[in-house]
Amino acid sequence: MVIGPKSSLTILKEELNRRFEKNSRYSVRAFARDLGIESSTLSRILNGKRKFSTELARIAAEKLYSSSREQDYFVALVESESARRPKARQAAKKKVDELGSVETRQLQKEVDSGLSEWYHPAILDYSALEDADMCPEEVSRRLGISKTIAKQAISELVQHGLLTEIDGRVVKSADHVVATLSLPPEKRRRIHLKMIDKARDCLEDQEEGRRVIRSMTMSLNDEDLGRLRILIEDFFGEAKKAVSHDRASNKLYQLNIQLFDLLN
Prior knowledge:
The chain is mainly alpha-helical. It contains 11 helices and 4 strands, in the order H-H-H-H-H-H-E-H-H-H-E-E-E-H-H. A hairpin with a 2-residue loop joins strand 2 and strand 3 (169-172).
């Protein structure tokens, strides 16, 4: 997704057309399934007979984009177009301008599904650490992957322009790079499973001072679930802001949140 002056409907139709081009058998029904929206509802939205609600926009944005900034942009764009109160539309338009501004100093790069493994973003962020040694042997040791995989992944990140070589050192191609992985659901699922496995391993291998793992069981209704989804999305945005600074980083962490139905 390129952040710019497009309507939410245009963005949606362009994404649908992109999927049509990749798979001629792809359908609006399949698009609705992938977005987590009823097909009849999506058809009415695409035909201009219905507007996105904020809740539907958040659900769709989560399925479409891995970047919290792009998710927030899409939701704000929908609110700027469909909020009933003028003040709400005005506030949303301001957020759209802020998120779409080049003054954010973020370089958005949309990466194709070839970079679909958990270690691609991990290597990219590892390269930003003050003590990062980007030779394949060290990347292999630090991330627990094979030397062959480390070498190939570094090469792929360089080819996509996310990493670059400067004076013999491999570094990020810009001070602030956001890699947006546009991945199909199955590949996202595979990455989530790998991260859950790593969280399980850290329970055995890491002392409590290096990790935070909490859980709670709740009874709730559909409205509660909607509010929790929004709260989680907001939390990820706030967490990103909390660690966005000009000081050098020396640690690489993974933040996961699982919210799922315990009933069969």
